[in-house]
């Protein structure tokens, strides 16, 4: 990570995402974000797809490459859809690009279903249907306050009122004739029902990002497919805005109607909890209650529960007046923390669950060692980072440069104890 050039790289960052049919190379859409939002010329699109097809015909799998000013990644899904991402950010890792393409394809499945993507009968109709997924896909290309797209876990918020909110959500979901319910604050999960947590982590992440990506609306009745659980049969996805930025969501069958839930159930169950809901909004950027005090040298935090696939992520770890000045902006802290996570899991923290089989994230030198890395750190001119991995948790902290390097491990260990022993993020 070269943070002395971080600001310039963030300003120059451009991303182009291409989606084509794998058999004929017909473009389905092109999405662009960053300094250059012009659509790529068709000859460039054809060349990017052509070099991949040429490699496939020679039994060569082309996954990523880089030039002097760009990085490119390819991925073919179900021998039907080809996704290509082109970025000018030379700090973009293979891990990030691979998960970006995975998220984009699953977003397409979420909206149109797997059948229409595998058995393409009418290209023009598929193009029209995919427009409904553009907002969700674009959110993965933008700089986000969430990290679930990268870590493949669910962004969460810890509230002092989790108990009462959980009880209300369970009762509300049952009254809506469902067992799948979730309370979101700006795309982060506050509480969810037991059955909701049984969905795959990526499905829960996608549903949260879907709500966050859509324009604010008092209520929605949205047909969705679950990429792992139900990729061919749609479900009703109901969402209701309780406050600006606070939504309650339910997966249900053909009954009850949207109007019935909105008019009879929402006010009955959620109006008495107006203050706890407002409190969730106040702490969502920090992700945990203000009563928890952390070391003043911490500028950012990413805590992952590896078993439950939940994460706490913030670059504003200090409440109100206790917030220290930082040499990095919030966006820069987000970029550094995401980069440090990528570095740690790509080179030092070996995955044991077989994730990302399609795109290896491990360095070859690891094969020569009998042990697995448990801790790592980075020291730079304007920040320091420390990461620690336990059987159930991973914790990554971003520090001010003034914090002594020898103290990083002790502070990180104590911070992990706070969140695993003193708070209910088990």
Automatic annotation (TrEMBL):
Among the GO biological process terms of this entry, one is: vesicle-mediated transport
Gene Ontology cellular component list: cytoskeleton
Keyword Lipoprotein in annotation = no
Annotated FUZ/MON1/HPS1 second Longin domain ranges read 177-270
The keyword Lipid metabolism is annotated on this UniProt entry = no
Keywords in UniProt for this one? Answer: Cytoplasm, Cytoskeleton
Protein localization: Cytoplasm, Cytoskeleton
Identify the residues that the record assigns to the FUZ/MON1/HPS1 third Longin domain, covering every copy. 297-422
**Signal sequence extent:** none
Question: In what residue span(s) does the FUZ/MON1/HPS1 first Longin domain sit?
Answer: 16-139
Q: Please tell me where this protein is predominantly located.
A: cytoplasm
Give the similarity note: Belongs to the fuzzy family.
Q: What is the protein name stated in its UniProt record?
A: Fuzzy planar cell polarity protein
Originating species: Latimeria chalumnae (Coelacanth)
Lineage from the top down?
Answer: Eukaryota, Metazoa, Chordata, Craniata, Vertebrata
